[in-house]
Amino acid sequence: MEIKKGVAVSPGISIGKCLVIDAEDYRIPRRLIDPSQRMTETQRVRNVFKDAIEELTKLQAEQEEIEGQKMKDIFAVHLSYLRDRTLRKKITDMITTESVTAEFAVSKTLRDIAAHFAKVKDAYISERAADIYDIEHRLLRLLVGGKRQDIAALKEEAIVVARELSPTQTASFNKEYIKGIATGAGGRTSHTAIVARSLGIPAVVAVEDITESVNAGDTVIIDGNRGIVIVNPDDNTIQQYLEYAVEYTELEHRLDAIREKPAETRDGVRVVLFGNIEFPDEAHSVLEKGGEGIGLYRTEFLYLNRDTEPTEQEHYEAYSKTVAVFKSRPVILRTVDLGADKYTQSRRYAREPNPFLGLRSIRYCLQNLTMFKTQLHAIMRASVLGDLRIMFPLITNLQELMQAKMVLGDVMEDLDDEGIPYNRKIKVGIMIETPAAALTASMLAKDVEFFSIGTNDLTQYTLAVDRGNELVSTLYSSVDPAVIRLIRTVIQDAHKARVEVNVCGEMASEPESVMLLLGLGIRKLSMAAPMIPEIKQIIRSVTVEECNKVARKVLGMNSERQISSFLRDAARKILPEAF
Ligand code: PEP
Ligand code: MG
């Protein structure tokens, strides 16, 4: 039995057999196979070489017309490696003699060659190392890609263990069969964690060396409440966890009982609870859990599980389906937040060096106007069906907001020309998720109807800590004094300008942060559906006066450690079962 600690990102407990997925971008763990599988693994290698040659030949043909000589040469070099029989033989020999997986043999062989090239003094040869890494990526993507599809079609229960999962992969999981997730990479607000939470799959991320510690078929316990993964537990531990699981289900049932009750503090202050969704199908669970609307619809997920861009009609259908669930209640559609860890990098030939600081989100939309207008056109068409609102993400300055609004204005004119009805008074808001936006909230407030504080990115950009990097996950905290001060500024400026303000980052669903947010003046929170009952229970157990006191105390503290332990103690007193 091995107990491993990670970061709890999606609550619940599950026990089951694990399925290990190798990632395409990282060191592949050396996992042994049964000698009877050697033939299958060898055949997999042959197949992916064939597929890679086909893929590259096609790309080469397309590139010849567009970009000319340079790309053509690169593809020619890659093709010559892939056609080299000795390379393939080296890989298959490794599988036969060492009984390792196809992934490991491909990765190890190619990385050894790349390392050898990199050491050569001749610049021409040392630069070839990059080509070899590229080939390794391509082959691994093809090897792992097949397995990913297998996972989407899985027909028996499993716990997924991986070095890293993309938001797209996680979104394709079938909740009926995938019972838990453990990854080596990631942090509390990485998009994979967010999707797991929305789907209600218990998950723990940032578990060191997790892929090296398990073999396919091992029994694994995922404790998504405490951030623990137990590999091959003994009988006593299994028994103890079965009891925990029962307790947790009982808590969920008890919380279901307050579904119809309002999220109102003991002294009668009403708080509005919205849901965050990634797909229209999730709208029903928001309603079931007592959500009063959608505070954040991450519409970019429409792009993530497919190879082509969605059509305007597909956008429209997704939005009208969501509005139909909520009728006249608010549904805030965030325009696509592509880039960074979502979608665009895997489609670029050369990846951006710092994608989270790169062509992401509204910046990407403003440089891809056809795509942006397609989405806005669909949103506006759907705007007559209910209380649809538009939210622009990652705004960093007023100019960007004005540009986005201008594009929206153009789309409205097009609709006028086409004689298509739309809501001329649609509410337009922005996410406050950069320090720049927070510090200039008073200026931005003049041109919007609402702010939604995206604490996930606000924390990342304020503290200069990558939200998905497990190496710095202990430095990532939304209750750092710097982040809290920015949140306070935004709330104060919003109140002064009479602009609505809510929080839709993961902080809104953290039991320990709720009192602080209420004390800072927030009256609207948006979160993953499964978290709504627990947060409502906390709101119903406190008074605003108590929350104000908590906020005053926290603002007087100067360390994150002190603040988080103070907030945890305060929340634990109210809802001990959640901790
Ligand atoms: C945020 O940044 O807080 C947010 C809600 O947006 P996302 O998590 O999709 O980046
Ligand atoms: Mg964000």
Structure commentary:
- With 579 residues, the chain is α/β, with parallel strands linked by helices.
- The chain has three domains: 122 residues, Phosphohistidine domain (Glucose Oxidase, domain 1); 112 residues, Enzyme I, Chain A, domain 2; 321 residues, TIM Barrel (Alpha-Beta Barrel).
- Helices cover 51% and strands 14% of the residues.
- The chain contains 23 helices and 16 strands.
- α1 crosses α5 and α4 packs antiparallel against α5.
- It is globular and about 75 Å long.
- Phosphoenolpyruvate (PEP) binds next to β10 and α18.
Summarize the structure.
With 579 residues, the chain is of the alpha/beta class. It has helices spanning 38-66, 69-82, 85-98, 102-119, 123-152, 167-171, 191-199, 210-213, 235-256, 283-288, 301-304, 312-326, 361-367, 369-382, 398-418, 435-439, 441-444, 455-463, 481-497, 511-519, 532-541, 544-555, 560-574, and strands at 2-5, 7-10, 13-21, 158-162, 178-183, 203-205, 219-223, 228-231, 272-277, 294-298, 330-334, 387-392, 427-432, 450-453, 500-503, 524-528. The protein contains 23 helices and 16 strands.
